[in-house]
């Protein structure tokens, strides 16, 4: 697991594949439901992870590459049709699940938020929607952290898709073909909102201890967590 301190009284953890109960292509700390893994293994992985990171409870989302933001107050195994959540409840860890899509977590003024920001969600503005919701709730001084995702040197797409994407998202693979750079696009969105951003430098496709859909197709999901201590 990978830890960082985004703000005073805030903790962020990125999980990896190790130390869980799942087997086969989900080996072993898969935190995602609906990917074909045994539900009992996922439930045990979630419970173990929440205990190990030192949170009291966790909120997971049923992510749909949308832009809906919901304020949460208590543990949830899957907030329906939601790609961003925020809370001011201490000890309640918010999870953005991914296997190439970056999780983005935001903190400030006693609030934390988490968003699942893949290509579609980033284009739709899920992270700006989260920042706006948190600011409306009273969190002015925000900072963000972008979790691991497919990097701009690996995330190959058709040329038409690159051409239709915002400039900040356009990239080229290390082998010279069209690509997208979600981290760059997200960093630009957050900068436009005045939110300073740090990131996990790891690329999911290039990092065996992280799940990658691009690399493995049938696979699990890791989480980027944030909570108030
Ligand atoms: Zn890469």
Ordered list of secondary-structure elements with their pairings:
Blueprint: E1 2-4, E2 10-14, H1 39-53, E3 57-61, E4 69-71, E5 76-79, E6 84-87, E7 92-98, E8 103-108, E9 111-116, H2 119-124, H3 126-137, E10 143-146, H4 159-163, E11 170-172, E12 178-180, H5 182-192, E13 197-199, H6 213-216, E14 222-228
Parallel strand pairs: 3-5, 3-7, 4-6, 10-13
Antiparallel strand pairs: 1-2, 2-14, 6-9, 7-14, 8-9, 8-10, 11-12
This protein binds zinc ion (ZN).
The site of zinc ion (ZN) has 6 residues, from loops.
CATH superfamily: CNF1/YfiH-like putative cysteine hydrolases
Subunit organisation of the chains: single chain
Would you identify the CATH architecture?
4-Layer Sandwich
End-to-end C-alpha gap = 18 Å
Tally of separate helices: 6
In order across it, which strands form the biggest sheet? 1-2-14-7-3-5
CA gyration radius, whole angstroms:
16 Å
CATH topology label: CNF1/YfiH-like putative cysteine hydrolases
Task: Provide the CATH top-level class.
Answer: Alpha Beta
Low-pLDDT residue spans: none
Q: What's the pLDDT, averaged over the residues?
A: 97
